[in-house]
Amino acid sequence: MKTKRSRSASISSQQRPARNAAARAVIVSFFLLFPFYFFLDAVNSQTPPATRGVIRLKVKFKSGDVTKELPRKRFFLIKGTLDDNRALIAKLKQTDSVSRECYYRTKGASEALIKWLVDNDCDSIYCREIEEKYLSGSDAVPEFQAAYNQGLREFKTPGLARRWLTVNLPSDIRDGFYKQKQEVIEALVKQSEDATKTKVMSVMTDRKGTAYLTDIEPGTYTISNLVGSETGKTSILWACEKEVKAVDLAIAMRRPFTLSNEKDPKVKCEFVERPLPVCKQTVK
Amino acid sequence: MANGRSKRKGRKGIREGTQRIPLCVLCEYLCVPLHLKLFIKSPIMFVLIFIVAIGAVAQTRQRKPTTQQAPKGSAAKYSAFQHSSDKHKSLTCDACHKVPTAWTAKRAFPDVADFPNHDACVRCHRQQFFTRQSFAGGGPVICTVCHVRAAPREDGRFVFGNPNGAGQPTKPRDERQFTIEFPHDKHQNVIAWTLPRRSSMVAFIRASFSNEQTDDQKNPAYNNCSICHQRDDNLVIAPLSTQPDAATQSNKFFKTMPHAHDSCFNCHWRNQKPTGDDCGGCHKPSSTFTAVTAPKRISAMFSHEGGKGEHMNECTTCHINITRASTLRGLTPDVPIAACITCHKDNKKTTYPKLTTIEEEFEQFKKTSNCTYCHTADVGKKKPPASHEAAAQ
Description:
The complex is a heterodimer of chains A (284) and B (393).
Chain A: H1 2-45, E1 53-63, E2 66-69, E3 74-79, H2 86-94, H3 100-106, H4 111-119, H5 142-155, H6 158-163, H7 171-196, E4 201-204, E5 210-216, E6 219-224, E7 229-230, E8 234-244, H8 249-254, E9 257-259, E10 268-275
Parallel strand pairs in A: 1-9
Antiparallel strand pairs in A: 1-2, 1-5, 3-4, 3-6, 6-8, 7-8, 8-10
Chain B: H1 2-16, H2 22-31, H3 37-41, H4 43-62, H5 86-89, H6 118-130, E1 175-180, H7 184-190, H8 201-205, H9 262-268, E2 283-290, H10 315-318, H11 337-341, H12 358-368, H13 377-380, H14 386-392
């Protein structure tokens, strides 16, 4: 009995270090793995804080008694406050861009073409495909008719001649005004990029005058349309200051940054509203 | 018993170093100083380590093999046309392509509608066309770049635009060798399009350029994306099959994309740069790739035709980043949840009484752990992201 007991005692004494080591391993793994699981859980459940900013831009203008939204106009986001961009803003105010009507009158455009541009709110002929009613009849636009007839000779089919009508329009009539405006804008963008050493971002408003500037580095910015936007009877130029904080888009949605031609003490904004000039017809 | 015995044997083997494999040795040496010797030696840990090791090896093996090129001078080399070869790259596009080709038979508009003439190939590849060696077997293999068979009386040619690329003997796939440059922002500056009447869904589907005005305002409205992207009735995409009502889901989730020069040449044929003969103005050389014509629909149950017509807003109202995109690269659909919340939020219910809101979707998630109104089940079971929570607040 004694021998058996001593043998079993010796076996248990041999197994003890192994058991201790196993216990140690379990404890170590517990301490190593559980914090890791907690960390993973925390990472999954925690909402990562927003690191970039968003601006929901809303552009309105008051014309007479009616407040309207400004559709399809491009706005630029320039790094720095209004004071930082003082030189640029001074240049914007000095830049006297030609109005759409004046440009086309200077180029000898017909009344029908000018009416077509105004009715469709277009800066160039590319704006919309030309409908058949503008090729003949009372609404006919002489410039379109000439281009269509030329296209008919070249492309053979009336449909193609109409759809490819802009191919046969003189360049100054086709998109001369747009290109002239773009040249001014590109020069101003380059100036601001050189001054701020930051790329200028731009967005276009939708038909309700809304646009989103997303993924912005937090800081203070100047928002401007750089050249006056024609709104019927006037042209409005904006340069407004906005501090951008890191925020989720959903929160930015609730607080739009509104540009208007009415004074708002809450918004640090400069705007210049000029009446559109009366233009004289220049016969070619 | 057998298992227990084998375990003991295994442990003993490792302890004594009689059956060691290199990985075990490494682990043992690494872990001894940390007193984790037994922990590592447990069979479960071995299995885990083994799985990790296998995974690592598999991952390294999964790397794409480099394209095998036919040896220089071999016939196979000339069966595959590559715009990207050094010689071809050194040529201007009009050195081979005529702009326009005789288009009237093949197109409804002037276009590069056919392969270059024989002269374009023969002037450099005379050897591949006319030597005795080239006629061995099935005829000059270089002919199969454009022709279905290299036989003098075989006139059948592949469809122009899909030159016979490497490893593509019968051209079953739509392989491309050029990418397209398209600045969305510039085009949105100049192009506008009137939005059809809200009440008329048919008018939207069969949209044509017109000056129709919206009911609520007499000023022209715009939807210029629709000029190039319209409802795609031909695209067949897999339904979101995890859903019980998969059969009723709209297949018209994605829009069309321009796939012919007509969409560009109507303005860029001449005078407006890049013009029709300046191929490089829009097309940039790329390694051969297969275009994805039927994108995979993954998570959203959204339908453009849904929302009782309310989903047919101006595209940029929801796709908020398109107007700032100066290239096609890196462009994503960009519809944030915030765009949905404009209507799908509880406080909007006065306007849209039967609308499912984000709050209701969250409630459903609490009960079923799945957001199935807006998402497929596999995406809906994930924890709603921070943006969704912020939107619901």
